[in-house]
Structures are given as structure tokens and as C-alpha cells.
Amino acid sequence: MQQLAAAEDPFSSIRGLWSGCAACHGSNGAGGIGPAIAGRDIADMLKAYRAKETRGPQSVMMWGQASQLSDQEIELLSKFTKEEL
């Protein structure tokens, strides 16, 4: 039964990652310590953080977070923020 539920959830592989994002961006993506990301395409932003191409007050923290993400995880997180939040 649990395998069926995971197969039906296209975001099952990144839900653990999202819990880390939610710590700053809020469980619904509406913001908190970090900016609101609900409904946004965040793929390019995460790739820029991963490449350390961004500058700003929270960039250093996000460089470390994004550097651990694969391209597939970035795409799934972006799809999640656009479609699920």
C-alpha cells in the first residue's frame, strides 16, 4: 500500500528536502526567515545559488543548501513550489 502511495506522489523523493526548505520559507512556502517561494519557478534561482552567482544577505546560506542539490532535485523542487504550494 505504501509503495502505491509513493508511486502516485511525484514529489515523494523530495519531500524530505522540502522540510529543510520549509524551515526558512514556511511549510506552505509563504515565507518566514526566507522569502516566499510558493507558486514560483525556483529552478534558475537554485542553480544560480549552486553556482554561487548570487549576491545578497542570504546568499551564503543558500549557496550551501543549493550546492547539495542535483539537477533533478532542483527541477522537482521547482515543480513542487509551482504546483503544490
The overall pLDDT, averaged over residues, is: 91
The ordered string of helix (H) and strand (E) elements is HHHHH
What best-fitting shape do the alpha-carbon axes yield?
globular
Taken as a percent bin, the fraction of beta residues is under 5%
The first-level CATH class is given as: Mainly Alpha
Largest sheet: none
Helical run tally: 5
Question: What's the β-strand tally?
Answer: 0
- Low-confidence segments: none
Distance between the termini: 26 Å
Helix content estimate = 55-70%
Task: Tell me the domain tally.
Answer: 1
Label the structural class: mainly alpha
Q: Assign the CATH architecture.
A: Orthogonal Bundle
CATH superfamily, please? Cytochrome c-like domain
According to CATH, what is the topology?
A: Cytochrome Bc1 Complex, Chain D, domain 2
Structural description of this entry:
- The structure is a single chain.
- The protein is mainly alpha-helical and 85 residues long.
- It contains 5 helices and no strands.
- The protein has a single domain, classed as Cytochrome Bc1 Complex, Chain D, domain 2.
- The longest helix has 13 residues.
